[in-house]
Amino acid sequence: MSPSTRHAHVDALRGAAMLWMTAYHFAFDLNYFGHIHQNFYEDPLWTWQRTGIVSLFLLCAGMGQALAVQQGQSGARFWRRWAQIVGCAVLVSLGSWWMFPMSWISFGVLHGMAAMLLFTRWLLLRGVLRGASPWAGGLLLIAAAPLGSAWLRTQAPPALAAAFDSRWLNWIGLVTQKPPTEDWVPLLPWLGVMWLGAGLMQLPAWRAWLARPPRRLARALAPLGRWSLSYYMLHQPVLIGLLTAHRMLASQAA
Q1: Would you call 202 exposed, middle or buried from its count of C-beta atoms within 10 A (0-12, 13-18, 19+)?
Q2: Over the range 8-40, which residues count as b (16 or more CB within 10 Å of their CB) and which as e?
Q3: Which of 54, 56, 49 is nearest to 16 (CA)?
Q4: Each residue of 33-53: pLDDT tens digit?
Q5: By the 8 A CB rule, do 222 and 16 touch?
């Protein structure tokens, strides 16, 4: 979608997610450098924030794809954007392997989004995600993650459970335990969240809200939402660079 056909409110929601993500990652980096001491992997204060951030991203992605299909976005534009996401996902994997070789990211938010966009776009173009289907399908996929994982833990043959726990299959989302990785956004349950975003675009009240002129806060956040991929790729190197520079200056002063 060109800037003239984008919805400022959707971009503003995505921009709000970017700011929330930045604050979360800044706290994570402070913890990594030893300035604070928090458990980002188990403490609900941080795990629920991560869930909220990823959910907001994927809801916006679902809304964006529904809008794109409604407005007749060309396949070439979709594939160009999709290739950018895939390329950035590869860079994230390489960067995480350099920083966290034992817990590098093989299927994080960008990897997951690339896969989910394929499913969602295909179903939207064929008119499958209409009416109650995005809601029913989304909720079913969300419920399938804990139910399927519980079956693997309690009833599946050990070899099958081990296969689903491996990096080769853990992108599906059916695992006996969370993989040792810094970011993990599998198809289940997160594809369901994206479908809920597509479902939102069918609600008259939601579409009426999107049609309203954006207020000052939405206008301020919208540009960040329009450049979300670039911002996503740059914000962590900048934060880590600043904290590294602070450490070097502090050591010199000491």
Answers
A1: middle
A2: bbbbbbbbbbbeebbebbbbbbeeeeeeeeeeb
A3: 56
A4: 999 999 999 999 999 999 999
A5: no
Residue type, 248: M
Structure tokens that stand for 90 in this block? 């590869």
Query: Rounded to a whole number, what is the distance in angstroms from the first to the last CA of the chain?
Result: 53
pLDDT, tens digit (0-9, with 9 covering 90-100), for 172-195: 999 999 999 999 999 999 999 999
Chain-centroid distance, C-alpha 79: 19
Reading the block at residue 190, the tokens are 């997160």
Cβ within 8 Å of residue 246, ≥6 positions away: none
DSSP string, 67-121: HHHHTT--HHHHHHHHHHHHHHHHHHHHHHHHH-TTS--SB-HHHHHHHHHHHHH
> Residue 221 in contact with residue 11, Cβ under 8 Å?
yes
Q: How far, in Å, CA of 220 to CA of 157, rounded?
A: 53
Token pair in block for residue 152: 């693997």
